[in-house]
UniProtKB/TrEMBL annotation:
Top-rank taxon: Bacteria
Transmembrane spans: 37-55, 62-86, 98-118
Protein name: DoxX
Source organism per UniProt: Mycolicibacterium chubuense (strain NBB4)
Record keywords: Membrane, Transmembrane, Transmembrane helix
């Protein structure tokens, strides 16, 4: 299951990174502050996708969740009060905006699941069990 989660996280990071790289190349590079942020986000997300896919340490998944959460926060700011003076409206540019938001929400969710403690075995509900063949002697 952990391998599947790593693959899912890597895929969603790569999708978000590629969308931001494409937006950077096709116009956002000319937007002060936002353009370089798109390039940095794309670079970091692609690097994280590769490292997580190759089995990197679990703290990379935490970093991925924080990065995706920050990207979603920046998106929300850009649609409301503005992000460093940059304001957009609605879900434009389409379809990149929807693809990136869905990928980032999935990244946060998958990272959250992957960072849960690993449970070994199902709980039995019994505090202690005697080893097989050994029974407690009770007075008659």
């Amino acid at each position: 299951m952990r391998a599947g989660l790593r693959a899912g996280i890597s895929l969603t990071l790569a999708v978000s990174g590629l969308v931001h790289a494409e937006l950077y190349v096709h116009g956002y590079r000319f937007v002060p502050t936002v353009g370089p942020a798109f390039l940095a986000q794309a670079s970091v997300f692609i690097a994280l996708a590769i490292l997580i896919a190759l089995g990197g340490p679990r703290w990379l998944q935490l970093l991925a969740a924080v990065g995706a959460g920050a990207s979603l926060a920046a998106f929300a700011l850009s649609r409301t009060v503005g992000f460093t003076g940059f304001v957009e409206h609605g879900w434009q540019p389409a379809p990149q905006t929807v693809v990136a938001v869905v990928a980032e929400v999935l990244t946060v969710a998958l990272c959250g699941v992957s960072l849960l403690p690993v449970r070994r075995g199902a709980p039995t509900g019994l505090a202690e069990q005697a080893p097989a063949g050994q029974h407690e002697k009770r007075p008659v």
